[in-house]
Specification:
This protein has 570 residues and is α/β, with parallel strands linked by helices. The chain is 45% helix and 16% strand. β3, α6 and β4 form a beta-alpha-beta unit. α2 crosses α4, α9 packs across α14 and α12 packs antiparallel against α14. The longest helix is centred in the middle third of the chain and has 24 residues. The protein is globular, with a radius of gyration of 25 Å.
Length: 570
């Protein structure tokens, strides 16, 4: 802890008790939830954490990420709004007496950013917050003068990429305020794009090279040569893999690429303008944009692989070169992450002493009115669910129709590729039907009035590249021995451990989109709800189930579900 007693007196910090009073009032009168003593302790922890982050930043202490993991439905987002509004008021009332504090808030979606701004301004009674995103660009005056700036996760990542390249520009645009630096960064939910993963396949690279016309080949000779050399390297490693029986291996470490680093930005810009639709014999703007985006993604990945370390692995039968990088600047001003599933997210452990998870007071939530129905099947990943959707989903619907009464409101979370196989709302005998896919549910409040969640299919990431990319981005590239036998701090099969943690976090987020996020009594209870989920058999399924119970204390269980129709393979 920084020796910062004097700084507490110098800065316009929000007093804890007024924060608790205002948050309790909003919690009860606006959101019609019931407060409790454990909740108030949690909210006090939030306020103290914000204060400590502000003071440490002001004191120039080494950056340290503070991770708050209040459970869903405990007012973490509302608390951020209230604190920000009170901070703006505190800045105004102590003007000329104490130093003001500027806040940067990072949300997942543009709509959430706009909603946060509207709520803060309403609480403050004047315009103290402004959003800055692609649908609404704040003026330079607003960026410099508004106490609170709200941006999206992607805008935050984009700003950090500019920081990496130029150390000025977009990053300073969002962090500078009234001639100095904003002292607190509140990140609502974990950064979904914290790790940039770059992958080049031989087929995609061959296609991108094939689209380069003669005039661009003449203009960008060195760049084209680098891409062609990279393709040859990929094929070379493919041959080694076939001779050695497969497996991942390092291709080169940072700065050791035999081709050398190359700036492809000018070639990428020129390629993006090509009339790809006409090249393939069509005249369709959507096709043109789709192909241009795909080619640019391939070239961006190639540039990253050439510039950093890279490892080779097969994705199915496809030879790939892979690299990754941490996009979140560890020196962000006073970063505090609000992440309901932080305990399950392995990224914070990999950050080691650069991050600290703030303990949550016990007894904040009680899920004893939620019943978890578990079925065990094989083939719950995207491939199997797509292959068997036409038989599995009708069986699922028949089973749910037998179990649930017509007054229930049902939320389905499935893979995007099978979402269209679900019947429309009017075709099902329930009061309400909502559906969403993995990647579009975290942090959403759109399904909070549903009292049934159906989790049908799980969002597996690539079992090799996902954990390897995350580990390398935070711990640095490892050697072939690690790739053959990934271990760390007692975790023998680290990749499998990380995959299970990622699955658990995603599932818990999806479950808590429904009404169980609401608090109805002073014990942290919630309305009655049912959750139906298919889990894999064996230890993986047991670990995920244990994580659900750990993060949703008191949840009731009915498993195995007698849903033979659902669990049968197609």
């Amino acid at each position: 802890m920084t020796n910062s007693f004097g700084l507490h007196e110098q800065y316009a910090l929000v007093p804890v008790q007024p924060f608790l009073d205002c948050l309790t009032d909003q919690w009860t009168t606006t959101y019609h939830n019931t407060p409790s003593e454990p909740l108030r302790k949690l909210w006090a922890t939030m306020a103290h954490t914000y204060q400590e982050a502000i003071i440490d930043t002001a004191a120039g202490a080494p950056p340290r990420w503070r991770i708050l993991w209040p459970p869903t439905g405990s007012g973490k987002t509302l608390g951020a709004k209230v604190y920000a509004a009170l901070q703006a008021k505190q800045n105004a009332t102590t003007k000329g007496l104490k130093k003001p504090v500027g806040i940067l808030i990072v949300t997942r979606l543009i709509s959430q950013a706009d909603e946060v701004v509207a709520a803060i301004n309403a609480l403050a009674g004047r315009e103290v917050a402004v959003a800055d995103h692609t649908d609404h660009r704040a003026t330079q005056e607003q960026l410099s003068e508004r106490d609170i700036l709200v941006i999206t996760h992607q805008a935050y990542v984009n700003a950090t990429q500019t920081l990496k390249a130029t150390r000025d520009g977009k990053w300073q645009r969002v962090t500078n305020w009234r001639g100095g630096m904003r002292l607190l960064t509140i990140i609502d939910e974990a950064l979904c794009n914290a790790i940039e993963e770059s992958q080049v396949t031989a087929d995609n690279l061959s296609q991108a090279i094939g689209f380069i016309p003669h005039d661009l080949r003449t203009t960008y000779t060195a760049e084209v040569a680098a891409l062609e050399s990279l393709h040859q390297v990929l094929r070379h490693h493919q041959g080694i893999s076939e001779d050695s029986g497969g497996g991942a291996r390092m291709a080169w470490d940072r700065g050791e690429c035999p081709i050398g680093s190359v700036d492809l930005s000018a070639l990428r810009a020129a390629m993006f303008k090509l009339p790809y639709d006409r090249v393939i014999g069509k005249a369709d703007e959507n096709d043109r944009r789709s192909i241009a985006t795909r080619i640019d993604k391939t070239m961006a990945a190639a540039e990253a692989v050439l510039d950093r370390w890279a490892y080779f692995t097969l994705k199915g039968k496809l030879p790939t070169l892979n690299s990754s990088a941490l996009l979140v600047p560890l020196d962000a001003p006073g970063p505090v992450v609000l992440d309901a599933t932080a305990r399950e997210d392995f990224i914070y452990e990999l950050m080691e002493d650069r991050a600290v998870i703030i303990p949550t007071p016990p007894g904040v939530r009680d899920y004893s009115s939620v019943t978890l129905h578990v079925a065990r099947i094989t083939g719950v990943g995207k491939g199997a669910m797509v292959e068997r959707a036409k038989t599995r989903i009708p069986r699922l619907i028949d089973d749910l129709t037998e179990r649930l009464t017509p007054d229930r409101s049902v939320f389905f979370c499935v893979h995007k590729a099978v979402e269209h196989e679900l019947p429309e709302a009017g075709e099902l005998p329930f009061a309400k039907v909502a559906k969403a896919h993995w990647g579009a549910v975290d942090g959403s409040n759109a399904y909070a009035d549903c009292d049934v969640a159906v989790i049908f299919g799980l969002p597996f990431r690539d079992a090799v590249t996902y954990p390897t990319n995350m580990f390398f981005a935070l711990q640095g590239a490892q050697g072939d021995d690690w790739l053959d036998n990934p271990t760390w701090k007692g975790h023998v099969n680290l990749r499998e451990h990380m995959v299970r943690r990622q699955l658990s976090a995603s599932i818990i987020q999806a479950i808590n989109r429904i009404c169980c996020r609401h608090v109805t009594d002073d014990h942290g209870g919630c309305p009655p709800a049912d959750v139906f989920i298919v889990l894999p058999s064996g230890e993986r399924g047991e670990d995920i189930l244990a994580a659900i119970r750990r993060e949703m204390p008191g949840i009731q269980g009915k498993h195995p579900v007698k849903a033979v129709a659902v669990t049968q393979a197609a």
